[in-house]
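thought: fold this chain, then report.
action: predict
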Amino acid sequence: DVPPKLVAKAVPLPMTVRGHWFLSPRTEYSVAVQTAVKQSDGEYLVSGWSETGDGDALMSRCLSPDYAKEHLAQLQEKAELIAGRM
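observation:
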Protein backbone atom coordinates (compact mmCIF):
# COMPACT_ATOMS: atom_id res chain seq x y z
CA ASP A 1 0.00 0.00 0.00
CA VAL A 2 1.71 3.17 -1.20
CA PRO A 3 0.80 6.31 0.79
CA PRO A 4 -0.32 9.42 -1.10
CA LYS A 5 2.42 11.82 -2.06
CA LEU A 6 2.18 15.60 -2.05
CA VAL A 7 3.33 17.87 -4.85
CA ALA A 8 4.19 21.54 -4.43
CA LYS A 9 6.05 24.16 -6.38
CA ALA A 10 6.96 27.74 -5.54
CA VAL A 11 5.95 30.33 -8.11
CA PRO A 12 6.03 34.14 -8.13
CA LEU A 13 2.79 36.09 -7.71
CA PRO A 14 0.53 36.88 -9.40
CA MET A 15 0.06 33.42 -10.84
CA THR A 16 -3.18 31.62 -11.65
CA VAL A 17 -1.97 28.04 -12.08
CA ARG A 18 -3.85 25.91 -9.57
CA GLY A 19 -2.00 23.39 -7.52
CA HIS A 20 1.11 25.34 -6.79
CA TRP A 21 2.37 27.29 -3.83
CA PHE A 22 1.72 30.98 -4.33
CA LEU A 23 4.51 32.89 -2.63
CA SER A 24 5.98 36.36 -2.77
CA PRO A 25 8.07 38.31 -0.27
CA ARG A 26 5.38 41.02 -0.21
CA THR A 27 2.20 38.95 -0.18
CA GLU A 28 0.57 36.07 1.64
CA TYR A 29 0.44 32.60 0.16
CA SER A 30 -2.19 29.97 -0.43
CA VAL A 31 -1.79 26.32 -1.31
CA ALA A 32 -3.64 23.62 -3.21
CA VAL A 33 -2.70 19.96 -3.07
CA GLN A 34 -3.13 16.86 -5.17
CA THR A 35 -2.59 13.25 -4.11
CA ALA A 36 -1.17 10.43 -6.25
CA VAL A 37 -1.32 6.78 -5.21
CA LYS A 38 0.67 4.14 -7.10
CA GLN A 39 -1.54 1.27 -8.29
CA SER A 40 -0.53 -2.40 -8.58
CA ASP A 41 -0.06 -2.00 -12.36
CA GLY A 42 2.52 0.75 -11.78
CA GLU A 43 0.24 3.58 -12.88
CA TYR A 44 -0.73 6.40 -10.52
CA LEU A 45 -4.27 7.27 -9.47
CA VAL A 46 -4.19 11.07 -9.24
CA SER A 47 -6.82 13.15 -7.47
CA GLY A 48 -8.10 16.49 -8.67
CA TRP A 49 -6.56 19.60 -7.16
CA SER A 50 -8.04 20.74 -3.88
CA GLU A 51 -9.44 24.21 -3.48
CA THR A 52 -6.75 26.68 -2.47
CA GLY A 53 -6.77 27.61 1.18
CA ASP A 54 -4.82 27.45 4.37
CA GLY A 55 -2.99 24.31 5.41
CA ASP A 56 -5.33 23.31 8.25
CA ALA A 57 -8.41 23.53 6.04
CA LEU A 58 -6.74 21.49 3.30
CA MET A 59 -5.53 18.88 5.75
CA SER A 60 -9.01 18.36 7.16
CA ARG A 61 -10.51 17.94 3.68
CA CYS A 62 -8.04 15.93 1.65
CA LEU A 63 -5.00 14.69 3.56
CA SER A 64 -4.54 11.85 6.00
CA PRO A 65 -4.11 13.55 9.39
CA ASP A 66 -1.48 11.11 10.66
CA TYR A 67 1.26 12.53 8.44
CA ALA A 68 -0.25 15.52 6.60
CA LYS A 69 0.83 18.24 9.05
CA GLU A 70 4.47 17.19 8.89
CA HIS A 71 4.44 16.96 5.09
CA LEU A 72 2.65 20.28 4.71
CA ALA A 73 5.18 21.95 7.03
CA GLN A 74 8.07 20.49 5.02
CA LEU A 75 6.53 21.65 1.74
CA GLN A 76 5.91 25.12 3.14
CA GLU A 77 9.52 25.42 4.33
CA LYS A 78 10.85 24.25 0.95
CA ALA A 79 8.58 26.62 -0.98
CA GLU A 80 9.55 29.58 1.22
CA LEU A 81 13.26 28.83 0.66
CA ILE A 82 12.71 28.67 -3.11
CA ALA A 83 10.67 31.88 -3.05
CA GLY A 84 13.45 33.63 -1.15
CA ARG A 85 15.85 32.90 -4.02
CA MET A 86 13.52 34.35 -6.68
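thought: worth noting. Confidence is low (pLDDT under 50) at residues 10-26, 57-66.
final: C-alpha coordinates above.
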